[in-house]
Amino acid sequence: MELADIDLAIASEGSFGVHPSLFFVHADDEILLFIDKKNGLEIIVREISTNTNFNRATITNQKDFESFVNVVRFPSHGVILRKSEHDFTDIEKGISDWSRLWQTYHYFMKQYGSVYVETDMRAMYNPTRMTVIESATQKLVSKIGSYCPACGTPGFGITDIEEGLPCQLCQLPTRSILSHIYTCQKCFYSNNVKYPNNRFFEDPMYCDTCNP
């Protein structure tokens, strides 16, 4: 922004791995940031999705290799091949056609006897990730268009949550969301919105008292 002498910018970053709460499921975690230097605003949104082809494996035979690339939806989704999981000295990125895939596969197998293959998670090689970024972008647009009721500053959004949605059976508070807390980053006006998911009670199966 300093080099281009601009006041407005959007930045994005994604990470991939185990879902923060669904521990046996892979997830795509995207963050988008809108910066307005002139007005001192940073508007941030986050989208976590299990809609991802994120995967990797060490392969020693052609059958497993074919199975892997089919599962990760090659060639519509690109892959990366390299020497081994922790060795980046020999690596090929952005592989998205069958001819280059097999040429690279045979090279690594001949050189090292195995190949480490992973999904190329860069957005231009991963249409599934593009859809998650699109969802995050829609969130960002919506948040930019949300104005503080007190001072009118854009970006009035959720800054915290309050747990305690009561159990339907015992009425005691659970760890489920009771309310969303919205805060203005300019005037710090705050609003507590209860029952944001239009649910007034939690299922007893999620209650630490009824189902410890």
Task: Describe the protein.
This protein has three helices and ten strands. The protein starts with 7 loop residues before the first strand and ends in an 18-residue tail after the last strand. Strand 5 and strand 6 form a beta hairpin. It has 212 residues and is an alpha+beta fold. The strands form three sheets. A four-stranded antiparallel β-sheet has the order 4-7-5-6, with helices on one face. A three-stranded antiparallel β-sheet has the order 1-2-3, covered by helices on one side. It has a three-stranded antiparallel β-sheet with strand order 8-9-10, with no helix packed on it.
List keywords for this structure.
212 residues; alpha+beta; 4-stranded antiparallel sheet; 3-stranded antiparallel sheet; 10 strands
Task: Give a short synopsis of this structure.
With 212 residues, the protein is of the alpha+beta class.
Rounded average pLDDT: 94
**Helix/strand structural class:** alpha+beta
Shape label = flat
Largest sheet: 4 strands, antiparallel
Spatial gap, N to C terminus: 52 Å
Cα-atom radius of gyration: 23 Å
Number of strands: 10
Oligomer: single chain
In percent terms, what proportion of residues is strand?
Answer: 25-35%
Order of helix and strand elements from N to C terminus: EEEEHEEHEHEEE
Number of helices: 3
